[in-house]
Amino acid sequence: MSEKSIARDSMAVTHKSLVIRTTNIITCPADVIVDAEEGKCGATVNFPDATSNVSPSEEIVMIFNGENVFDSPYIENGMRLDGNDGSHIDAPWPIPCDNRKGALIHANTGNTWTYNGGDPFTPLRFIACTTNMKFTTGCGATFIPQQTGEVEFPDTPEWQNITSMIWEQQGDNADASIDNFRFIATPVKQQPGLESGCFFPVGTTPVTFISTDENGAETECTFNVIVRDVESPVYEVQDIEIDLGDDNSATIDANDVIIDTPTDNCAVDTITLSQSTFTCSDQGKTIIDVTVTDINGNETVKQVNINVNSNATDFPTLEEIEDQAACDTYVLPALKGDNLSGNQAYYTEPGGQGDRYEIGEELSHDSFPFYPARLYAYDNPSGSACFAQKSFQLSIDATPVINTIDDVQDCETYVLPVITGENITAAAAYYTLPDGGGTRYDIGSTITNEDFENPTILYAYDRTASGGCMAQQSFEIALNACPIQVTIDASDDILCANESQSVTLNAQPQPDEPVGTYTYQWNIVGSEEILSTDQSIEILPEETTEYHVIVIDTGASAGFDRASASITINVENAPTALIPDIINLCDNSDDIVGEETLQFVDYNNLFHANHTRFEIDYYNTMDDAVSDRNRLPESTTILAGETTFYTRITNRNTRCYDTSMITFSLDTMPLISLPEEYSVCINKATGTASDPVTISVDLPVADYDFVWTREYNGLREVLETTENRLVTNDLGIYKVDITSFLTGCSTQSQTLIRESSQPVDLEIESDFVTSLDSHEITIILEDLGDQPSRYQVRLEDGEWFDMDRRGNAYEYTFDRIQTDDGLQEVTVRDLQGCYYKQQELITIGVPQFFTPNGDGYNDTWNIRGGKNLDPSSQLLLYDRYGKLLVELEINGNGWDGTYNGEPLPSTDYWYTLTTANNKMTRGHFALKR
Fold first, then answer.
1. Could you tell me the domains of the chain?
2. Which residues contact 130 (CB under 8 A, 6 or more apart)?
3. Which residues form the signal peptide (predicted)?
4. I want to staple 679 with a disulfide (CB 3.0 to 4.6 A). Which of 43, 469, 756, 900 is the partner?
5. What residues contact residue 812 under an 8 Å CB cut-off, 6+ apart?
6. What is the 3-state secondary structure (H, E, C) of 663-727?
7. Closest C-alpha among 385, 383, 318 to residue 345
8. How far is 843 from 530, CA to CA, in rounded Å?
9. In 3D, which of 406, 30, 379 has the Cα closest to residue 207?
10. In whole angstroms, what is the distance from residue 299 CA to residue 293 CA?
11. Mean pLDDT in the chain?
12. Which candidate, 71, 101, 76, 108, places its Cα nearest to that of 88?
């Protein structure tokens, strides 16, 4: 069995790997390698952008409906359009496209587009209203729309993630216009440098991309754009003829043999001649190499014939020597020629320099550090410039030795391994026939049983390039023997110790169809007892156990007839859940009576001491808890009485669980509410309420505990009484805490006993002078704060009326009040008896007419109620022209309608009344006859 077959028979082990995922992954393309364009020292290179798992931004639309801009630049959604060389952009502007507003440029103008100060963007499409336009990237890629309407940009690398773009009008003298330009920004940005579609110089140019995620984290990658110079210099040469000088030598340079200056797509670096000095030994035709090398190492070699003329005679000459190749060793042959001195030999350098080797000397592969080696046959009998010299190249190859290769048996395919041995060359390969014949298979090739008949003979063959030194090893290969494999499927690989459901293990051999039949042997690792010989086995281990199965194909050949596999079934301890006692809860009187909201997490600690290691879920039934369905939310509402929930306590790691239950008993308290406040009158002498206040709760003392407290002036005291009622005449905040003897649940209520508010000011307003019997009187109590009370008012001994609340005041208005004797008594009181006040009000009535006809009725005119005025008050009468007629005594008999004893005519007359405090009022009345 070959080494490879043994490896295939070994049991495969599957590992689970931990994959750490980052939020920002960027992948650059592979290095791009291209040849320089013909005649150019570089190439235009297109490459895809780096890819990232960060999602690109959504499509951005420019609708050109912003503020009117008739100059440069125009900016919308981060895209900036800058006019070139004084050009400008009209946007928004009416354009010839379905009555749109878009962007317009004039003939022979253009502009440059950039996004967010240089961020990359990819143009997608736009609405072309005309076709007389061109778009150009910063690297020179162009796009010209061929139709109007919606036009898409090329979906090619040079139009993706560009950093700038030029839009210009071309082709005619008409305006060019577009609308709805769409593009996307990208989280992958290229660092400043040459972009896809740009011209890259010969050499290696690194390109770096940076990806930025939503958190601002940056990740970068770099690849190389490699432009190779594959062009060699171009030039022409010419054969020349030279004459040796008196010293039997002559020298030439490149200008003598090169017709014109060499050219190259990049630049010429060096020009060398293989021989530039000639002597009499070169007489006749000599061939030299002219080598021109460019700056990137490319070279062109051309041969030139140099015809050397000399007058020298009797100098030695050597015959030409062909290049030689040998295996392992080479014996230097005798040199042939004319006029040889007998001292001729071989040298490693021209002119008899370097190491000397004698004729007949044996050289080996190790004689030279590299091959081909150049040797020089040399003879100079007189030590003059007329010497004989010929050079040739020698290659001594080390014969390869291939190690013996074992016969191979494998399944269907086989990867040809490295050929090992000594002096193996890169040309070593496998062949279907001897001596490198038939079909060739390179090392690492995968061959199948369909490539040739099984079994067959293959040949590992190697041959040196120069000397033709070869080695060969054959071996037999058969690709029709496939070892079986087996895996174990388990219905579950983790059990909980409290489970009763067994696990099914099923052996799955491959291939599905055996050569004979499959047999099975199950056992526990570490035990020789056979548990079963069936393909499947039911197990219910009490502890973690490793199970092993051996599968044998009764018809397969030895070494390929069996396979085994193992699997570990882990048995995990289930958590043990406690069953807590009934949880007694008191209804919170602040929310809905008879209902209470539970937060289940508040009770998790009742089921297990290390409850944070487990998931605890709540259900309405035990069946739901066992089957893990209909989980309740984190909070729920219970009603008064007992409510039971069922729980499932699950280990976060093993998923093993136990169930339990919890019962809540919600007890309620009677809903009590004391009056918000009591308002009392305070005796100023004693500082206490004139009448005590009784605060009572309608609950029996036999069933409830009552605790009364009073707070006043920052001090709190617990009152002695434990009754359900409290009688007090002290001001303060009174609280009662009530606790049920049966359930222990408590409730609380409070009230305030305060001093009744006293008005700061009583204001009574009336029209001082009015018609005789139509006075309006308004009574206002001011600045009572926000404390409620009830006030009433009356005139004289009349009916009491409730006053209306107006903000921090009380108000009431009497109207159509008769003047009578001109003095009105107003009384205001608080219904609690805390306030009582009387005040008099003077009213003056003015008769509207009088009839001085002597009938005894209305024969004179005077004001009513004047007796209540100060005697210094003045009442003057005038005619309609302002002539003073009389000054009346306020309490006199009045005016009889005459002036200087003469009766005055019927008409309106005027009066002015001025009181002692200089308050003046005026009006008019009628005299009727």
1. 26-228 (no CATH), 234-309 (2.60.40.10), 317-397 (2.60.40), 401-480 (2.60.40), 501-511+518-571 (no CATH), 583-667 (no CATH), 677-757 (2.60.40.10), 761-842 (2.60.40.2450), 849-927 (2.60.40)
2. 96, 148, 174, 175, 176, 177
3. none
4. 756
5. 778, 779, 793, 801, 802, 803, 804
6. EEEEECCCCCCCCCEEEECECCCCCCECCCEEEECCCCCCCEEEEEEEEECCEEEECCCCCCEEE
7. 318
8. 128
9. 30
10. 4
11. 87
12. 71
Are 174 and 130 within 8 A, CB to CB? yes
pLDDT tens digits along 666-690: 988 888 889 988 877 776 666 666 6
Type and span of the H or E element at 59: none
Q: Which residue has 């006075």 as its token pair?
A: 775
Q: How far is it, in rounded angstroms, from Cα 705 to Cα 256?
A: 131
- C-alpha 137/C-alpha 151 separation (Å) is 17
- The SS3 assignment for 651 reads strand
Q: For residues 99 and 104, give the distance between their C-alpha atoms in angstroms, rounded to a whole number.
A: 14
Are the beta carbons of 81 and 113 closer than 8 angstroms? yes
Q: Are 852 and 808 in contact, with CB atoms under 8 Å apart?
A: no
Euclidean distance between the first and final Cα of the chain, in Å? 158
Place of tokens 């006030």: 791
pLDDT digits (tens, 9 = 90+) for 464-521: 988 899 999 999 998 876 788 899 999 888 888 887 789 999 999 988 888 889 999 9
CA-nearest of 422, 363, 427 to 398 is 422
pTM, to two decimals: 0.38
HSE at residue 506, side-chain half, CA atoms within 13 A, is 6
